[in-house]
Amino acid sequence: MERALLAQRIADAEQAAVTSATTTAAEAAAEALHGTLAELEVTTDRLEAANAALGSANAGQEKTLVEQQRAERALRASEARWRGVFEHMHEGFALCEMVGSEEVLSDFRYLEVNDAWERLTGIPAMATVGRTAREIFPGIEDFWAATYRRVVETGEPAHVEHRLGNRWYEVLAYRTEPGRFATLFMNVTERKAAQARQDAFVELGEQARRRCDPMEITSIAVEIIARGLGATVAGYGRRDADQENLKVQHEWTAVSAPLGADNWPLVQFWNDFGDQLARGDVVTNDDVAQDQRTADGADIYISRNVRAFLNIPIVEAGKIIAIFYVHDAVPRRWSPDEVAFARSAVDRAWSAGARVRAEEDLRAANEALLAEETRLRLALEGGRLGTWELDVLTDTALRSERHDAIFGYTTPPPQWGYHRFVSQHLLPEDREHVEDSFRRAVDEGTAWQFECRIRRADTNEVRWIEARGQPMRDAEGQTARLLGVVSDVTERKRAEERRVVLVNELNHRVKNTLAVVQSIAAQTTRSATDLHSFSAAFQERLFALASAHDLLTRVHWEGAALGAVVRAALDPLALGDARVDLSDCAASIVLPPTEALALTMAVHELATNALKHGALSVPEGRVVITCRAVGPDAVAPIVEWVESGGPVLSGPPLRTGFGLRLLGRGLKAEAGMAAALQFEPEGLRCTLRLPRIHQAAPTSEA
């Protein structure tokens, strides 16, 4: 019964060891094996005790001998079964003992290993048993000896994952007897590499989301890809304009790796697999010295510290525009998972960079659009233009605030269209030409441009507007919309009307001036005795006329102050304040242009006569000029000219010259001015009465 129970336990241990693929199963298998070994030791002790008892009691007893033989066969079967389990289990197994001084157990010796040991470590069993770890693995970390020393000293099992050389192992260690321990272990290098790639892929996504610079994303991707693959060098480059070199944009190297090159000549390095790259396929090379595509030029690769590489192309429009590359300084086999990781990581990085570039382009486009809209808005505001968009089919329009303000709306009307514009705002006399232009725009696709008068909604005021529209056609070529602007041009229209009036007035003034000049010339000719006297008198009178014109021009021919007119008439004669007293001629009554010209000529003739025959012909003679207004509203101007200190007058002159004729009849006919002449012995007294002024106001001279 005991042997059957022992056999069953060994079978259970065998099953647990064979099927254990996870750490938990491995622990169970180890515990089962440990229990089985203990049972074997107990059974062996019992058998040895039984043999001794049989030998001493009755060696001839056949029954006892048979039982002993059966027990021995069971023991051999159990040992064979246990050995099968030990040799065929997937996990590695090693029985070891700690070695070193009594104070420091710094190494351990392998006593026995199973067949899985060589498969998992790459070291034959015969080269392992009997040797210490430091002999087998030169430079092994103290971590391993320290971990196993704790297991032996404390009896507590240890479960660890750690690197040994270039491989990762998951190890379960437990004490078997004083100074000794056993380990169950698995090579988890692929799992750790897959986890590293997964972590790198996640990190790349997180880093890419936080970055706003495509080159920064690329630089981060290069480093993450290199670390995820455990490579010595990774980089990114673009093909130059001549398509002859790969210009390295960024390269990451491991701490111990030398820096790579700035450029990779494509003709040397990628000619043999250019077609593969152009298709977008990842190019792998496990050993440049053994791969037939690179074997002949392997020295060039090796000189750049490249023994194995991955090339991941970026292809757009059938052209290779960039390549991500991964280099290793030693030969290595690139697994399908590693290739897939590299391709996916590059695609993610490139997509993230493209997203950032697209966002930058969109942001730049939005900024440009905003700037353009701002410029347009400023132009519209500066030009006081309203915008509108008319849907021809529905007769509805989108408008700007300025558009509605032009039509007199402070609150936008709920409905607006062409027919509302025509029926509620357009003046009937302008309707025909507006509708004609609208029909041509819709039917013929011509620009819609017109000027018309409208009646504002708020004040009922008539205003002029100018509208310009451009037809927009649909897919069938029909005019579907009209887009345009509208502006209030009332002031321009009024300015045009004023310009027409001014031109007509100017024509009238020119004609009048020429008539005056012609009259002056004719009258001067009648009074002159010779050409010289004619020329002098004619020029003086023209100068006086020009002074009046200058004065009126400075005030835009809107009227001149009475006192300013008197002074302008005397300025060409340079008489000075000592000879002519104008202190009482500061009246600010504004004379219309015709009266101003007439008064100028009258004062000029009075002054000329005084210089030749009157008070101003002698040094002690003086003239006092008084300007005032009379009448109920004090707007009937009067100018009094009083001479004194000159030759004694005996009465009116016997001969009537130009001046007397002008004062007597010419001013009356020209400007309605009446002149009263009194030839007193003390000197001439002339009273000039101008027509009633309908509006009096001070003038501002420029």
Describe this structure in words.
- This protein has 702 residues and is α+β, with helices and mostly antiparallel strands.
- The chain folds into 4 domains: 185 residues, PAS domain (Beta-Lactamase, 2-Layer Sandwich); 164 residues, Beta-Lactamase, CATH 3.30.450.40; 104 residues, Beta-Lactamase; 194 residues, Histidine kinase-like ATPase, C-terminal domain (Heat Shock Protein 90), CATH 3.30.565.10.
- It contains 20 helices and 23 strands.
- Strand 1 and strand 2 form a beta hairpin.
Number of domains: 4
Class by alpha and beta content: alpha+beta
Q: What percent of residues adopt helix (DSSP H or I)? A: 40-55%
- Strand proportion, as a percent range, falls in 15-25%
Could you describe the largest sheet, including whether it forms a barrel? 6 strands, antiparallel
Unreliable segments of 5+ consecutive residues: 1-26, 696-702
Biggest sheet strand order reads: 8-7-6-11-10-9
Rg calculated over all Cα atoms: 60 Å
The CATH homologous superfamily of the largest domain: Histidine kinase-like ATPase, C-terminal domain
Cα end-to-end separation: 139 Å
Number of strands: 23
Kindly state the mean pLDDT as a whole number? Answer: 78
Please work out how many helical segments DSSP would assign. Answer: 20
CATH architecture of the largest domain: 2-Layer Sandwich
CATH topology of the largest domain: Heat Shock Protein 90
